Amino acid sequence: MPKFPLAGALLALTLAPLAQAEPVSIDGVGLTRDVPCQGQDVEITGSANHIRLTGTCGAVTVYGSDHQVSLEQGGALSVSGIQNQVTAGRVERLEVDTAKNRVQAALEGRAPNHAQLEVSGADHNLELVFKGPAVVNLSGADNQLRWSGSEPLMTVQGVDNRIERQP
């Protein structure tokens, strides 16, 4: 019988939230997985993984190459690497960098914060719906942004970037 059962129980209760705070990490090559987010952050690394995230995610990071990722809803989405394809139902913040990434998403901030889009790098193809106020910072070269919904506040720099409003 432990001498300090209450202390052990308190320690277990104290460490439980720390274990839950760890992000879900998916690393590999050619993996196919369905992952329930349950509010957690998710990190996807490696190459050519096919990942479907269900439910509400925290921050989602996609890093590497040739991934195909779908998610229903997330706080922030960061896509970095080359030739990743990501489809998101709704995110509050989207960052895309490096090269040749394709992202389809709806951006919607939580009041009083605006949705935010940061794009750098080259040859990205973005199809976005802005649901409410949004701030866009687009730089780099040969990026294409097709958008619909609410008119965002845009800052555009770089070379040969194309921005088209869709009906």
What topology does this entry show?
Elements: H1 5-21, E1 24-29, E2 32-36, E3 42-47, E4 50-65, E5 68-82, E6 85-99, E7 102-107, E8 115-119, E9 125-130, E10 134-138, E11 144-149, E12 153-156, E13 162-165
Parallel strand pairs: 1-3, 2-4, 3-4, 4-5, 5-6, 6-7, 6-8, 7-9, 8-10, 9-11, 10-12, 11-13
Structural account:
There is one protein chain. The chain has 167 residues and is mainly β. It has one domain (24-165). Helices cover 10% and strands 59% of the residues. The protein contains 1 helix and 13 strands. It has one helix spanning 5-21; strands at 24-29, 32-36, 42-47, 50-65, 68-82, 85-99, 102-107, 115-119, 125-130, 134-138, 144-149, 153-156, 162-165. Strands 1, 2, 3, 4, 5, 6, 7, 8, 9, 10, 11, 12 and 13 form a 13-stranded parallel sheet that branches. The longest helix has 17 residues, at 5-21. It is globular. It starts with a helix and ends with a strand. The relative contact order is 0.10. Residues 9-19 have low confidence and may be disordered.
Total tally of structural domains: 1
Largest sheet: 13 strands, parallel
Q: Strand tally, please? A: 13
Per DSSP, the total helix count is 1
- The helix/strand class is mainly beta
Low-confidence runs of at least 5 consecutive residues: 9-19
State the shape.
globular
Q: For the CA atoms, what is the radius of gyration?
A: 19 Å
Strand residue content:
over 45%
Whole-number mean pLDDT: 91
* N/C terminus separation: 70 Å
Helix-strand string: HEEEEEEEEEEEEE
Estimated helix fraction = 10-25%
